[in-house]
Amino acid sequence: MADHIDLLAVLGHPVGHSLSPAMHGAAITAFKLAAVYTAVDLPPEQLAQGLQAVRVLGYLGANLTIPHKERALQWLDDCSESAVRIGAVNTIIRSGDRLFGDNTDGRGWARSIREELGITLSGARACIVGAGGAARAIADALLASGAEQVVLCNRDVDRAERLALTLRRQYPKSDVRSCAPTGLRTDGIDLLVNSTPVGMYGHSEGALPIAAGLLHGSMVVSDLVYRPRRTALLSAAQCAGAVIHEGIGMLVWQGALAFEEWFGAPAPVAVMREAALRRLEPSGASAAHDPSNTTF
Predict the structure, then answer these.
(1) d(CA 87, CA 195)
(2) d(CA 180, CA 167)
């Protein structure tokens, strides 16, 4: 038996639906690591105490899911530049008695796009449907990768414009715009990302976040919803001749990047993906997921 066991956890409320224990548990087993990854249901009013426990009990690190990602920043000792820009943390690394926060959501999505489709985001003309936390992470990844233009399409146009204004301040040379769905034009768009819960099981399954007529064969369509894997949006995009990208990719890669930060070694991505898919099908398919909060 190992003399020391590294402790890891995902903190959320509720947290029973999280696929992180399955993914990281499989990765730990694959590498024969002396580590344990658990899910901890932590009510919002106990977040400060929970983070202090990560510190004083010597956890290697932790993941955060809803509703803790934004509120956690005030209790961390330091954060990555991306976490500060996005205003949310999903990964914590402990070093001594200090906690460092990072956000691997947007980078995980970008890595998935690159690894699965061989697509570079530099020069992309992208549209993100939604203006919540996931949209902010995706927009940051796009702009950090050199996207030419980002359009934020949201029913609440004021919310989209507030996010656009923030992004323009963070990336002064960027072309970031906002619009309502009724004003969206996609003839110049080569990448469309759905960051809303529209189309997920138990919420609006079968619905489309934008009109099907806006989809065309010269774009890549990425849906952050992963329950079901093939959403109505992805099916419609495929019928229109577009290249499609499933939400499971972001789910797996954001976890893989966290694993690499904790253990300093390449994550067994294929193993983590297989573990996540096993949990999703068939019994996990009915669980609710809201990608606007990027719940893992």
Answers:
(1) 17
(2) 18
**Structural domains for the chain:** 6-104+249-293 (3.40.50.10860), 106-247 (3.40.50.720)
Cα(120)–Cα(83) distance, rounded to whole angstroms? 22
The residue among 72, 93, 95 whose CA lies nearest residue 261 is: 93
Active-site amino acid positions: 69
Q: How does DSSP assign 95-121, residue by residue?
A: ETTEEEEE--HHHHHHHHHHHHH----
The phi and psi torsions of 274 (rounded to 5 degrees) equal -60, -40
- Taking the complete model, does pTM exceed 0.85, yes or no? yes
Q: In this structure, which amino acid lies at residue 263? A: F
Alpha carbon distance 241, 40 (integer Å): 43
pLDDT band of residue 2 (cuts 50, 70, 90) is: low
Span 121-138, average pLDDT: 97
Comparing 53-67, 86-100, 109-123, 193-207, the range with the smallest average pLDDT is: 193-207
The pairing of beta strand 125-129 with beta strand 149-153 = parallel
Tokens read off for 206: 């079968």
Contact partners, residue 261, CB within 8 Å, separation at least 6: 61, 91, 93, 102, 104
